[in-house]
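hey can u run this one w/ nicotinamide-adenine-dinucleotide bound, need the structure tokens asap thx
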Amino acid sequence: MADKVGVALIGCGGIVIQNHFPGLKYCPGAELVALCDSNPEVLEKASKETGVSRTTTSYEELLAMDEVDAVIIATPNFVHAPCALEAARQGKHILCEKPISMDLPEARLMLEAAEKANVRHMTAFTYRFVPGMRYMAYLVQQGFIGQPFHFRCRRQQDWGDRFLGWRQKKKLAATGEIGDMLSHRIDFAHLLMGPIRELVADLRIFHETRGGEVSDLEDWVGVIASFDSNATGMLESTKVATGRGEGGMSEDLCEIAGSEGTLIYRLGNPNHVLVGRRGSSGLVEEPVPNEFLKVPNSPRDPAEGDPVQVFRYDQDFEFIEAIQQGRSCTPSFEDGVRVAAVIDAILKSAETRQWVRIGDL
Ligand SMILES: NC(=O)c1ccc[n+]([C@@H]2O[C@H](COP(=O)([O-])OP(=O)(O)OC[C@H]3O[C@@H](n4cnc5c(N)ncnc54)[C@H](O)[C@@H]3O)[C@@H](O)[C@H]2O)c1
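ok here u go:
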């Protein structure tokens, strides 16, 4: 490999413009060398924006290019596994958007293929990089909450009844609100509380058509979970919380409580956490210490830009640094597989109206 990691993008739509084009600019070890999108207009726009002239509408062609060492897969969900399996076959390192696959068996195949090819693999659980979440994970590791009792997350957005493109089609996305939003929060649960043992879940479609087309995926998901540690979990995520707005400033809360303390993260206030200590009369807002405002070694100045946006750029830095250092990425495909198992359990529980044990899948 040359001094710089040659990076290519498969899919140049919304998330690439929001996270990866700017994120790669903060990776001195990376050079964007090629672009792929099945839509020629999107591809041309991306080429103009980045100045990258090596473009193709075929991911197979892109993955056969010698100058491509690593690939970021940012297509609709149904294309993730075919791209990742081909990337592993071609010996390319892989950062794949979430949810990594359409189901658990596909996610397992992706992990196996990447491990066998000895390439770095990463799942884009972007919100692990929020300073407040990084600090909470550190405090939990230090034993701050003591014996864990509760995990609670709430993601409430107002997407109304608007057209969602591939996101509203089961055969292209597999799930709706679960894969879109809850997948990140399931990852928080694993990060902060350890494995989920079993769960019971319910789903609801409120808009059966969007933009005049069938929408056959859930707008709302609710889950009650038990962790291996015996802690409880309450997870809820919705697209139809009218008047809540959308994006980073709409409600995204993650709260954990244990015998010694409580910690609360809110995406809209990413550089602070709310802290409760045993014996105190209420919660106190505390700033996240400087060392958690970005990943170590990143050249990014955490004081620059909108705090609700800029932490997202650290994800690409982690991917490139892991490649250069020959170490595993965090979060990896293993984390993606763990979340895929919970997603399959949610679907099974909602269908059968029963509790489902994750280990049985
Ligand atoms: N990590 C996050 O916070 C986050 C946020 C948003 C979206 N996502 C994920 O990113 C992925 C993409 O979402 P998006 O919002 O950018 O979607 P999008 O529709 O805006 O962009 C997807 C792009 O992929 C292209 N594409 C489709 N099939 C292709 C193929 N076979 N080969 C090459 N290109 C192909 C489309 O033309 C489109 O330009 C999804 O998996 C989504 O869940 C992650």
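The mean pLDDT is 97. anyway lmk if its weird
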